[in-house]
Each structure stands twice: as C-alpha cells, then as structure tokens.
Amino acid sequence: MAKVQMAHCEDEPSRRQLYRLVFLLLVTVPFIPEIVIYGIIGLARVKGCQLEQTAVCLVGAVPVSHAIGFTLKATAGFVVAQAGSLKFIVGFYLAIAGWQAACYGALSQGWTRVWIRLLLGFAVALLFATLPYFGQTIATSYLENENCPPATEGGFGSCRAFGSYVDRGDYNPMNDAGQLGWLALIGAPLALGIFAVYAIWAVVVSIHSAKRRVKSA
C-alpha cells in the first residue's frame, strides 16, 4: 500500500506538468488567426517590406496582404456570413463556452493552489471576453497607412498595404473583423459568467479540502 502511494506521489508532478501543457495549448489554439496575422506581418517586416511600398511584398509566392485577407475571410468573414442563423450563433457561443470550460478543467488539474486557479482563470476569462471578438481588428490595425485609413462609421474602405490590396480593392475583410465586435455583447458577459461559476467551485473545493485535512490531522 505504501509503495502504491509513493508511486502515485512520484507520478503527480509529471501529471500536473502534462495538464499545464494541455492548458497552454487550449488557451492558444482559439487565437491562431491572430497569431497567423502577426506572423505574416512579422515575416514581411523581416524581409524589409514597408506598408506603403508600391512593389508587392511576397511571402513565398503569396502577396502578404492576400495572405492576411484570406485569414480574415476564413475566420471573421465566415462567422459574419453565418451570423444571421440562430442555430449558428447558438453553436458559436456554445463552442466558445465549452472551450473555456475545457481550459478550466485543465487548469484545475494542473494547479492546486486556489489563488493560482483564480488568477489564471480570470486571465482566461478576459481573453475569451475580448480576443474572439476584437483580436483580429487589433492585429490588423498595424496595416493602417495612407492607403489603408482607419475605420470610419461606415467601416473600412479599401486597404492597400505591402504593395497589394487586402483581398480586393472593392472588398475589405477587415470590415468583417470589425463586425465581430458586436458578438461581444453576449460573448463577454458569457465568459465572465463562466469564470464566476468556476471561481465559486474553486473556492468551495479549496475550503472542503482544508476541512478534510484538518479532520485527518
């Protein structure tokens, strides 16, 4: 029996390390579009490309702005195009809520101290309350220049950066990214509400564990 307990104690640190890695992956994966956009812009800058240059800046054989436009259309553009469907919107929020809950599950397995759980849990809530809705707008704000003006009340006009249009001259997918912000009206309170439930659970579990340790002592 003692050997079994010792083996369990030895496995515990490695198990927690595994869950911490899972937690980091779960937090990172939903924000791959923003990471891709920043990565594309970073590659362009490393190559020496400038926002207002006239020659087309290429990453491989693809114009930088076209790659950014494709990323926006495949994510923000798709969501905005489907936003008129109630089933899609409900599924969209449920998917985000489920992913946030999965993050909390991995967090609880990776850390035992309640203050760490609450601190990281709140950070996760802030991420899920903002980045799914404003992340791509923030990421593409770097493209603003004389040929790619900031958004007005009517949205963005055509955007030309790194020598080519972001998608097409008559269509700017940055507008789709901007429209995602409206979904935060429900998404942000939902993320904070999920954290509130998790925080209550974490505190209750911590108190229960403390009482059990006192009794066993």
What features would you describe in this structure?
- This protein has 217 residues and is mainly alpha-helical.
- The protein has one domain.
- 70% of the residues lie in helices and 4% in strands.
- It has seven helices and four strands.
- The strands form two sheets. It has a two-stranded antiparallel ribbon with strand order 1-2. The protein has a two-stranded antiparallel sheet with strand order 3-4.
- A hairpin with a 2-residue loop joins β1 and β2.
- α5 packs antiparallel against α7.
- It is elongated and about 75 Å long.
- The two termini are 20 Å apart.
- The N terminus is likely disordered.
Overall shape: elongated
Average pLDDT: 88
- H/E element string? HHEEHHHEEHH
This entry's quaternary arrangement is single chain
What class do helices, strands and sheet pairing give?
A: mainly alpha
Helix content: over 70%
Number of helix segments? 7
The number of distinct β-strands equals 4
Radius of gyration (Å) = 22 Å
Amount of beta strand: under 5%
How many structural domains? 1
Largest sheet geometry: 2 strands, antiparallel
What separation lies between the terminal Cα atoms?
Answer: 20 Å
Strand order of the largest sheet: 1-2
**Low-confidence segments, ≥5 residues, pLDDT <50?**
1-8
